[in-house]
Amino acid sequence: MRSPLTATWLSLVSLALLPAAGCAPPAGSSPARAAAPAASAPDRGAAAPGAGAAAGKTAIAGPEASRVTYELLGRQPPLGARVPVEIRHAPDGKLLTYLQRRPDSPEQALFALDLASRETRQLLAAGDLLKDAAPLSREEELRRERQRMFSKGITTYTWARRAPILLVPLGGDLFVRDAAGAVTRLTETPEPEIDPKICDGGERVVFVRGRELFMIDVATRRETALTKGAPEGVSRGLTDFNGQEEFDEPSGFWISPGCDRVAYLEVDERDVEKVPVFGVRSGKEDLMMARFPRVGGKNPRVRAGVLDLATRRTVWLKGQGDEQRYLGRFAWAPDGKALWFQALSRDQKRLGLLRANPRTGEAAEVVVETSPTWVDFAPMLLLERSPRFLWAASAGGHTHLALRDADSGAELARLTAGDWDVVLLAAPDEERGVARFVATKDGPTERHLYAVPLAGGEVKRLTSEPGVHNVFVDPKGAGFVDVHAALDRRPRAVVRGADGGELGEMPVAVDPELATLGLRAPELVKVRAASGDTLHGALLAPRTIEPGRRYPVVVHVYGGPGVQTVFNAWSPRLLWNHLADRGFVVFQLDNRGSANRGRAFEAPIYGRLGEVELADQIAGLDYLATLPYVDPGRVGVYGHSYGGRMALLAMLRAPDRFHVGVAASPATDDRLYDTGYTERFMGLLGEAAARYEATDVTRHAGNLRGKLLLLHGLMDENVHFAHTAKMIEALMAADKRFDMIVFPGERHGYRSPVASRFSSRAIVEYLVEHL
User: Fold this and answer.
1) Concatenated DSSP letters for 211-279?
2) Does residue 57 lie in a domain region?
3) Distance from C-alpha of 676 to C-alpha of 664, rounded to nearest angstrom
4) Does 460 reside within a domain?
């Protein structure tokens, strides 16, 4: 249930488009209230007030009241903006390359902006490399699932750092494009090449095939096996489920700057529990026995080594800690003489930053972070011109930036401080002696780029317009690309120089259908929790409000730790607009436990998942009840994943406040989920069995009073179907009626157009029928 560490408006768009699916008032002040929209004439197609409703209830209009049709709600890829992603500076500084959905196709292609002429052109499309792309391999399908990657066509690419050579994987094979535009196919094999990386000089590519590491010479296409003999259940160069899903570590190997060594993980999953993941696709049964590190069970045994490419010998790193810990955030020193990595204890209360000698394997801790609740892997960037590094870790209850000595780990300068969080480290501008970072300094719902002298000093904001700025800095200079949007501003992608002036702009096209839909943005509101905390919410009122009438509510909830959903950011919000057009109030709230508000805001959930979150969501309902157009007796709740869990908790633990629930792919029992996520917030099962028992949602099945719809993909390898199965058994044992939809061939995200369309319509119609 991991979410990206840095939430931007791009991730908000993704969240808002899931299948039918982020300055506080002074203490003691009243919650800010959303002003009721002015009364207006009924929108076209709206049902007459009271039609089809019980006496005194405002009727919900039919689907014809919204221009957002069911077909549009379920479209894949979803309607939105064709925004540049994977933006990178070419090694010679002449081009900015990026991926973007083509105007004539649902597929992404590779484009370039020439910084001299300011002209854009398409460099490569999938059809230029493969005429008939093969179906995704299971390995690639699962990697994309864990990276929340829904795009098609060219989905990733890499520049060699010091050579004008592009590496492009597609269809399980590898291609390179040289400076003249010539494309060479490096591989054509039955098994896919996984996680390919190109050396800084462009001379070699390293990748994983099967369970082993391989290397291919770009000039000769000569392939070499770097590792051999991994038994079944052991892999070299791949990270495990926890690394990919929970720790934002998609890779399991790292090439040295001189392309003479490769650091890699050996993952032994032979003692990890096997869990059956069964489904049906196109009428054919599909059974996968997945290695899943379930709470209370064993994690894989992971060790890190450094492979010398000349001798093919591996030196295993020492001082990694016990085999139950997690390894991550590997980084080579710029001169290749040291390898840095982090080791996190299994209970996730202690983090060590280690520096290893790649020749001998000797490793020593240079920084240690601890917490009575949990500590996260810390962002870190090594400077190239001096033996120092930037380190972002908890300080004063918030994530802040420090400059440290690379030899001793000693703190040289505290660069930031205050009641806000650094959420992303960008490449420093060492020429000018400044660090650059993205932070919440101007409010939790904002994201801006800031700079601070490496020696310490004033923090300066580099982005001006309100909203969320998704920033790509020039790693060799002071310029950056600013992909910016706000609730009232559609996205732009502007290239800026050292002085902030515009050097060019990348095209950002909005799907033309959106202009015909009359879409509205929600209003950002503030809610006072019983704890005294200020909670941020988003509210979209019905398009038409008649004086004296009250309208039903749909709460769109996620609520889980480590995620933020409410931003001053643009998104089509098709589901929200459809519901509001038909007469619903749509509301979303970031409760305590959500990300980017400091540890004091996050930590109250520790050991009691669901309790604090639900209390804050109820505070949101209390706020809504103060609005003259809200009917607090007609409240629906919808959520997916942790949001599905929250929808169930709302229906079962506050049945007098929530009356209709839709729970999609819900996590119902923490003992059924993975170690990396669950033990972070609940502790180790052997030490906290009572806490785990208390958070089992299925224990409250007998409290169900309203209408409940469950949805789940049968092939979900993240939140397994076992979670919903246990909920079903509990509801049956309590003799409670409920409704259920199973998607036989879908995983955690519903990817097929049929499933996306069907789930969208089913969710809306369930809310309409029962509210």
Assistant:
1) TEEEEEETTT--EEES---PPTTEEES---HHHHHTSS---SEEE-TTSSEEEEEEEE-TTSPEEEEEE
2) yes
3) 22
4) no
400 is an active site residue: no
271 in catalytic set: no
Q: Is residue 171 assigned to a domain? A: no
Euclidean distance between CA atoms 245 and 674, whole angstroms: 10
Which amino acid is located at 718 in the chain?
N
- The catalytically annotated residue of 235, 251, 594, 641 is 641
CA angle 537, 538, 540 (to 5 degrees): 145
Residues of the chain under the 70 pLDDT cut:
1-56, 133-134, 146-151
d(CA 394, CA 375): 8
Q: CA 638 to CA 623: how far, in whole Å? A: 19
- For the chain, the first-to-last Cα distance in angstroms comes to 29
CA-CA distance, 544 to 43, in Å (whole number)?
6
Catalytic residue among 248, 474, 674, 716: 716
Query: How many independent structural domains does the chain possess?
Result: 1
pLDDT digits (tens, 9 = 90+) for 117-164: 999 999 999 999 988 766 777 777 777 776 666 667 899 999 999 999
Query: What is the distance, to the nearest Å, from the Cα of residue 652 to the centroid of all Cα atoms in its chain?
Result: 28
Is residue 214 within 8 A of residue 207, CB to CB? The reply is: yes
Residue-level length of the chain? 771
Interhelix angle 753-770/574-581, rounded to 10 degrees, is 30
Q: Tens digit of pLDDT for each residue in 662-698?
A: 999 999 999 999 999 999 999 999 999 999 999 999 9
Range of the domain at 68: 48-77+512-770
Sheet harboring 339-344: ordered strands across? 326-332, 339-344, 350-356, 363-370
CATH of the domain at 554: 3.40.50.1820
Q: Are strands 630-640 and 660-664 parallel, antiparallel or unpaired?
A: parallel
**What are the residues facing 414 on neighbouring strands?**
402
Find the farthest-apart pair of alpha carbons in the chain and give their distance in angstroms, rounded.
83
For residue 548, what is the DSSP state? T
Residue tagged active-site, from 712, 748, 756, 770: 748
Question: Residue 495's pLDDT is what?
Answer: 95
Give a yes or no: residue 267 inside a domain.
no
Residue 482: active-site member: no
Contact partners, residue 731, CB within 8 Å, separation at least 6? 701, 704, 708, 738
Strand partners, 515: none
Helices (H), 56-162: 70-73, 126-129, 138-146
